[in-house]
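Hi there, hope your week has been kind to you so far. Do you reckon you could talk me through the fold, stretch by stretch? Thanks so much in advance, here it is.
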Amino acid sequence: MPVPDQRDPELTRSVLEGWLADRLPSPTVERLETPATSGFSAETLLFSAGGADYVAKVAPTGHQIFPEPRFEEQYEVLRELRSRGLPVPEVFWYEPDASLLGAPFFVMAACPGRAPSDMPTYHQEGWVTEISEKERGSLWDAGLRAMASIHHQDVKGLEYVDQAKYGPTGWAQRLAYWENYLSWGYTGRVPVAERALEWLRANAPVESRPHGLLWGDSRIGNLLFVDGEVTAILDWEMVTLGQPEEDLAWYLYLDRHHKEAVGADGLPGFPSREQTIARYAELLGRDLDDLRPYDVLSGLKFAAVMARIGQLFIHYDLVPPDDPFAYDNTATRLLEKLLNEL
């Protein structure tokens, strides 16, 4: 859900043209799309200049989703992974001066392709419902291959994404981060998230392998596709270090949410959970550990994020202070169902 935004398109165009004057031979902005509303995690501006299409990502300010937006880190991650040949957007410039657009921003190339829809979900409406079963299976597998390309990366040069302030890399750090997130994000209680935390403390996985790079927000809705192949891996706000099982669990959990939690029948053609796990073990080159702890962690993360969004709804007077959305929504209901299955 978006929040109100009062950005003046003409003023924004003027600012961008002045800023681009030293960066492009032809800085005139021919096209600028400034959404009437901006998303919670970051604002996106689409524009054309000098015959090319660009995307400007503006750092969140008062409506941030994460305790530490780590905005410049996202720019650095994209730049590093692009240099390694991964299909991420090409980034050109980072601007730390908040006086220009109200917050730091970076500019990257617009990538070709289209992403599966989150709202309504791709199991309900949109272009994914119109392609063949075989194409859906290929789409899913392309996403798995894109994710595996991340997990095969050497973490040298990317160590800064580790969230060491929450503890040593790995499971303990992840729980500490999300427990802190929950208390930071929402002033009330989310009972099912508290129950999940209790379960996770009692059922910690043994993480004996070296920790690797995690995408964080690993789902096909964050991928652009052309002819069934991934052209861009997007949204790196949740990048960190950990075990690949965490990303795979999120990939599966969000797909489950986009079916069960919204009352949709899953589209035929998508591989089953068991088939996906087997395929990912093949791509990773090793057997996968038990995903159940990472499934519950996924449920906790999603419930925490939705609680934060609920808090922002209250802050922006989109719902009254006593509205139950923050602790009773599709994410919390699916987490409750998952915990009851264990």
Notes: The mean pLDDT is 94. The CA atoms of residues 54 and 109 lie 5 Å apart. The longest strand covers residues 43-49.
